[in-house]
Design goal:
The complex is a heterodimer of chains A (631) and B (520). Chain A is mostly helical and 631 residues long. Among the domains of chain A are: 240 residues, no CATH class; 70 residues, no CATH class. In chain A, 71% of the residues lie in helices and 3% in strands. Chain A contains 23 helices and 3 strands. In chain A, helix 13 packs across helix 22, helix 16 runs antiparallel to helix 18 and helix 18 runs parallel beside helix 21. Chain A is globular, with a radius of gyration of 27 Å. About 3% of the residues of chain A have low confidence. Chain B has one domain. Chain B contains 21 helices and 5 strands. A 3-stranded antiparallel β-sheet of chain B has the order 4-3-5. Chain B has a two-stranded antiparallel sheet with strand order 1-2. The chains are: A mainly alpha (631), B mainly alpha (520). The interface between A and B is large, with 35 and 51 residues.
Amino acid sequence: METIAAASGITSLTWLLIALPVAGALILLGSGRRTNAFGHLLGVATIAGSFVVAVLLWLNMLGKSSDQRATRDFLFTWMSLGRFKVDVALQLDQLSMAFVLLITGVGLLIHIYAVGYMHGDDGRRRFFGYLNLFVASMLLLVLADSFALLYVGWEGVGLASYLLIGYYQTRESAGPAAKKAFVVNRVGDIGMSVAIMVMFAAFGTVTFQGVFAAAPSASTGIVTAIGFALLLAACGKSAQFPLQSWLLDAMEGPTPVSALIHAATMVTAGVYLIARSNPIFEVAPNAQMGVIVVGVITLLAGGIIASAKDDIKKALAGSTMSAIGFMMLAVGLGKSGYVYAIAFLLAHGFFKAGLFLGAGSVMHGMNDQVNMRRFGALRSVMAITTLTFGLGYLAIIGIPPLAGYFTKDVIIESAMARNPIIGTAAVIGAGLTAFYMSRIFFMTFIGPKRWTQDVHPHESPVVMTAPMVILAIGSVASGYLLMRNQTLQRWLEPVTGFTEPDGALRPLVLTGITLAVVALGIIAAVVLFLRRPIPETAPSKVSVLVSAARRDLYGDAFNEAVFMRPGQWLTRSLVWVDNRVIDGAVNGVAAGLGGLSARVRRTQTGYTRSYSLVMLSGALLVIVLLWIVRL
Amino acid sequence: MSTVLAATDGLFPAPVLEYKELAPVLIVLGAATLGVLIEAFLPRTLRFRAQLVVTFGGLGLALAALFLAGEQNSILAEGAIAWDGPARFLQGLILVLAVVAFLLFTDRKIDPGRDAFAPRVSAVPGSPEEQVLTQKLIQQTEVYPLALFSLSGMLLFPASNDLLMMFVALEVLSLPLYLLAGMARRRRLLSQEAALKYFLLGAYSSAFFLFGAALIYGYANSLRFSVIAAATASGTSSEALLLAGIGLIAVGLLFKIGAAPFHEWTPDVYQGAPTVVTAFMAATTKVAAFGALVRIFYVAFGPVRDQWLPLMWVISALTMVVGVLFALTQQEIKRMLAYSSIAHAGFLLTGVVALSPKGVSAILFYLVTYGFATIGAFGVVMLVRDGAGEASHLSAWAGLGKRSPGVAALFSLFLLAMAGIPLTSGFPAKFAVFSAASASGASWLVLIGVLTSAVAGFFYVRVIVLMFFTDPQPGQTTTVAIPSLATALALAVCAGVTVVLGVFPQIGLEVADRASLFVR
């Protein structure tokens, strides 16, 4: 493990990364209407400031040798009670640096985009306040030097996500969606707090350094327990099976939020958590296997869900689940996967954010409609959006030489080296990705017009298209830049370690197979969505679904049978359990205590004589107690 | 001891008094005496200003004297007073809390042109005499010297190093409070009833204390804590005397801190007394009494801890449970806060049970957070009014968050601090006492503490929900008064301390850590 030096010089400015957006959030949320006029610009400016600091820190880090790069910026001791000591300190190493650049860079672009997207919205200042709050929390999450501080950021991003999903307060569906995200995330948070408590009980510390130093010598039971608790936390935040349900509903939030929080950054926090905790997972192979299983299930399930959604944002949300499933699978592979997971995560940050911004641009031109069945032929009116979305589409499905090809292929390779079943699942996932992404692209931009009568689609203003263009460039180039000459691998190796995957299949052969499967996915989509007319209403309302030409409807049916009905049943039974059992228990305890309280209250008579009697009895009790001890 | 020996020789040498260290107490006593002279000789129109100058000047001087007195631990005044970390810390805390509370005393803006006290206490409630006095806007200013006298007792109480000094301090702090409790301008009968109850029960508990002190003297042949400790360590005298003595002294002190089953006066007195007086005594009396309790049990009875520890466990558990349970169904805001203060006495007692310097520093820190949150909460209670004065019934607080979000948010802050929610001062305080207690093996007591804290959260949050999410009943006339600058300042200080110690508890914990050792 590399040494971590105390921050000095420019690295002692690490705190500024977080302080700027915090200041922005405080000013924007605290100043009331006074800052309405320029609030959005202030919101952008703080993130721009953070991005500049991040780049300076990165350049500074590049100038050092690879084992000297990590620094710890000690701010203050939050509290120190006996053995329990929590410092507020920021650890900036190669892993956090990568995230800081992603968060501030992509965050800045999306802030700029949001200036245009939220134009004319009454609550724009509040929106930027929340967005700044999110960036600050996310930076705290990746810069924390202990699990306790990470938890603060973890809750902070959860709060910001909750506020932003429910941002459209007038929409009836936004409130429940926000609540759902909140509740599901709490389930994951239980894992986080359990992990922290076990760490403290077992190791007496919750700092990364302390825990990672103690983990190798701890008993298998302890590290496995911590590993699974962390996995639960990661599942909640990253929308992984079985806690994936909130992400689709989270699309109720404004589209820039979906791009920043629910695609590029926050939902990858779980991947960060596991990559950061690699010394724990390295000694807990069972927990690692759990990570792989979760990743595989989610990458397939997400792909299937994405294939069945007609709502463009929900289809992309399914795709996000699937992509994060890939990342989880990769971090589960251990040393041969961490680097690839982070590489895919960074590339995904570009192309998925770009795709979402593209979707937002489409919605912007189509009166906020999201139903892809009423899109089509938009390439004729939205050239830039079509181009940027198209590049993102090609990138995510892994067409060489775009970002997805470089970053996803290595994950598949590494998975195949571990186990052919896992590898095959990953290949199928790649095929699914090609299928549903092609479907989205064809239904939206190609094919005949299926527009409703009142829309007049138009290209978005330059404040929106410019970030899309930059993200598209990232989607094209980031993969090559990250993987060329093992750039990222050499960068991250001191933090996460790296071993070359050693598979039976030659990489070139595997790449060929993967590309063939991807081509199959595209062809299927072409056959189904270009060659055949797309009905304007969802065909799930058609009662008989037999034609092989409508295979995607099996996806819908599958969705309903596997996810929706049990989901509804589960929700109904959960509501029942909640009403009868949980509320019953809570209310019962409250009512019981209340009844007890009302009853004992009568002993408080108000008479001095009875008070004195109670005191006298108390004095007797005291003497008796003292006497009993003596016996 | 030397005086006793000298007297037998027919000489009576002057006792050695360390004026430098005793200065804070003496200054407060002097200011109180000056206040009495002002009442006697100055014309009524000048008294208020003169009292303010004397009171706040005296407090300022006393604080300055405390800082200048130095940190050399010693025994003062022929062995009667201890000068050590806890004594200095608590004296400083009591003085600062008193300054904040006295700021509330001065408010004449909430009830325009009037302060919180009856114009003439001897006037029969509802009589023509009282009406005339009220119409003439007559104010009485005797409250300031009375409160200062009480304050001098509070300063001595946690520093007392022998039983007689402790008893004197107890009486000096209590007697003026009995009077102050009866001086409310509004709801005077309730106030007078509270004063009488407080006096009767207080006298009753003093008797217990005094009797206990006598038994201990019989046991140890001395009133000095160090001598008592030596006697209990050698264990040569009758144990029955010792145990009965400890028990009776415990009763007297537990009464003052409001521990169950000696708590029953608390809600009646807190409710009846003028709210400013409640704020003052709820904060400072508890600080002083806990100081005295911890000192006597750690220093004098430390060697026989095994004898009294189980007692403290039971009392602590009982106090937490009783305070929380009774608070659940209170409909009166001041009574609810009174029961909450009882519960806090229970939480604080878990720190006593810890029997370690860590426990002492945890108690000291807890007292800081509790004191400021309490004064702040009662200060807000003063502001929320209806036609008949303070809107005491909880239903009158419904919907306050919509009309006065600032005041409601402030009150929520103090309630959250009392509930021990992170990022308010209450969380590190609770964490500190509980971790000290669990470190010394009282885990089941901590378990009760955590469970009762959880239940306590319910009634604190209930008020917040009431303020922010409940619509007021139709026809409700609750208003929020505009406070004077002094009151606003006091509330700001309380809120500031509550937030700062919540976010940066280390500041307070370090000071408390340094002050956690008793001189013996």
